[in-house]
Prior knowledge:
Layout: H1 4-9, E1 18-19, E2 22-23, E3 46-48, E4 54-56, E5 64-66, E6 72-74, H2 80-91, E7 96-102, E8 105-110, E9 115-119, E10 123-125, H3 128-132, H4 139-151, E11 160-161, H5 174-178, H6 182-188, E12 192-194, H7 204-213, H8 238-241, H9 247-257, H10 259-268, H11 271-299, H12 311-332, H13 337-352, H14 379-385, H15 394-399, H16 404-407, H17 411-423, H18 428-443
Parallel strand pairs: 6-11, 7-12
Antiparallel strand pairs: 1-2, 3-4, 5-6, 7-8, 8-9, 9-10
Helix pairs in contact: 2-4, 7-9, 9-10, 11-12, 11-13, 12-13, 13-17, 17-18
Amino acid sequence: MASPTRQFRRLSIGGTMAATRGRGQRHSHEESPSSSDDSEPIENSSEENESGDVYEEESAESSTLQARSGITYDLAGLDSDSEAKAVVGLTGRFDVVQCVSSHGGYDFLLSDHPRVHIGSDQHLCTCSSFQHQPDTACQHIFWLVDQLHGCLPILPAENVPMSSDGRSPEFQRIEQLLDNNIETVADHLDCQYCRGEADGGMSRAQKARDIVSAFETLTLPEDFRLDLVDSIEQPRTPEQCVVQGDLQATMLRLAMHDDNVYTSLCKAMPSGATAAIYFDKALENCRKVLTDFDRYCRTGQPPADGTAVDLDHVIHTLQQNIIRIRDNIAARAPNGIEGATKALVTLLEDISNRNKDALDGNRWGAVSFQGEDEDQRNLYHQLIGKEDESEEFPLLDALELFSGAELHPYAPRLRALLQKNEVFPAPRPFIIRLSAVVRAAESGATGTGQKRPAGNGSGGNSKRTR
């Protein structure tokens, strides 16, 4: 039998291929061939494989190979082991589940569980092949670097020399090219891009908590299992992640410490889904607080589940949830835009509809809760209508993060809210800022919001390479 590298050359890399039904394109292979004895002589110029295809062997072996990206590489500088991995990677097919910015580069989660880090110092992979030979690129690194170059608007050179670490001296370093093109690259790879902790996004621990808490009806990640304090910096084996009798704790730890479990959960519950769930739950929590408070003010009966309905708690909860929505818009960008805008506009409507003494018309004869005046019992006044020096309006802070195009579906509702708040009247700084939001929504401008990092949360590109 021929060596692995010679077996690949018998596929006529960079040359031609003949099949039993005429000539065609070279076949790509997703797995490297197994090692075998080199001593067996080659008797014929062609060989039949298991499927019946016959491959011609060129008399002068070529070292060039055209990868799936369309770039042609020169593998002459690689040793036999690196060449075998390069051929498998450059002609293979993998799926990227998620791309996350990380310290010094980007992490790409593949559907078959490896995590490839493209960094300024080194390209790394969690697969066993790379772990056994960390100085040599594995098939995943060869494949990903080629796909990334193929995504970028740079004319590839012919016969690009390939190094054993997966880099090429003829190309600019890929991690530098990604910085300004990462959303475009993620779109071409048909995967979701998420900003990492270094860019103001979510950490691995936060993402794990986000995914596991998504299966809860109302509990937000910030409030989910606060008893489960664990650090990703303290490694655990899968066995050490098991908490007897507690599936939630076990899954949370596995998501934090086991790459296979984490990648599978990210695929089953992608960032777009968790973002939509988050903003839906945040809105539902606020509306439940308002409904419980309205019922208590009207009847004097507190909620059966024991939820606090005193005025200070209600105001604090609403403010806290609005701030959480605002902060999560940036942390989850570019995901969750539709859910976040819906939540904010709905909350602004709900609060604007409560510009009154909360105890007006109550059935139990209450005139105050604890001796406060009617302005203090007015939720609208407490959350929006107070004139103070700070002029802080978390609702507007959050709405200003969106572009006019993202707000455009809510333009009629925002215009109605502006007119209502002008009649009240709301504080002048609030009216000025809300007017700007309404103008942006009605114009439908496609530019990004004032503070949110640019992202591409919708649409797609038909040109997707794998």
